[in-house]
Amino acid sequence: VQIVESGGGSVHPGGSLRLSCVASGLRFSNYIMSWHRQVPGKERELVAQITRTGGRPRYAESVKGRFTISRDDDKSTVYLQMTDLKAEDTAIYYCKAVEDTGWIVPDYWGQGTQVTVRS
Question: What tens digit of pLDDT does each residue of 22-35 get?
Answer without folding.
Answer: 999 999 999 999 99
